Amino acid sequence: MIPLEFVGTKMTPHIIFDKTASIFMLKGTSRPENPPEFYKPVFDWMKEYLTSPNEKTIVEVQFDYFNTSTSKILLDLFELFEKHSDLGVKLHVNWFYTDDDEEMMEAGDELLSLVNISYTVKEVDSAD
C-alpha cells in the first residue's frame, strides 16, 4: 500500500499514514478552506487500509489548533475507527497536547469519549 503524506502548512496538518512503517500521524494546525475535500484522501486511504490492517494500529494525533469543521471530520474519522474496532481491528488513538494547552486536552478527551475506541490523552512538553 502506498503511503499517504501531506506536508504541513500554516493551514493544514502534517499527515503521514504508512502501513509498512506503522506510522499513522496527524500533527499541526487544521483549518483548511474545504475540510471534507482536504481530508477525503485520508478517509479513502484509511478505508482501504482497514480492509487489511496491521496487527495493531496506533494513530497519533497532535494538533496545535483545529477549527470547528475539522472537529466534525475528526469525529467522522473516529467513528470509522469505531466501526472497524467493533469488527475486531486492534486500533488505539494517542491524542497528544502540550502541557500549556488545556483546551486541546479537553477537545481530544471530549471527541474521543463520543466513540467506543481505545484511546489515551497524553501530555507532552511544549518544547517538543
What string gives the helices and strands in order?
Answer: EEEHEHEHE
Which term fits the overall shape? globular
Number of strands: 6
SS-derived structural category? alpha/beta
The share of residues in helices is: 25-40%
Give the integer mean of the pLDDT values. 95
Total domain modules: 1
Q: Which residues sit in consecutive blocks of at least 5 with pLDDT less than 50?
A: none
Radius of gyration: 14 Å
Given the structure, what is the number of helices? 3
What summary fits the major beta sheet?
6 strands, mixed
Cα end-to-end separation: 31 Å
Residues in β-strands, percent: 25-35%
Placed side by side, the strands forming the largest sheet appear as 1-2-3-4-5-6
Report on the architecture of this protein:
This protein has 128 residues and is α/β, with parallel strands linked by helices. The chain is built from three helices and six strands.
Ordered list of secondary-structure elements with their pairings:
Blueprint: E1 4-6, E2 14-18, E3 23-30, H1 35-49, E4 57-66, H2 68-86, E5 91-98, H3 102-113, E6 118-124
Parallel strand pairs: 3-4, 4-5, 5-6
Antiparallel strand pairs: 1-2, 2-3
Helix pairs in contact: 1-2
Main attributes of the structure:
alpha/beta, about 30% strand
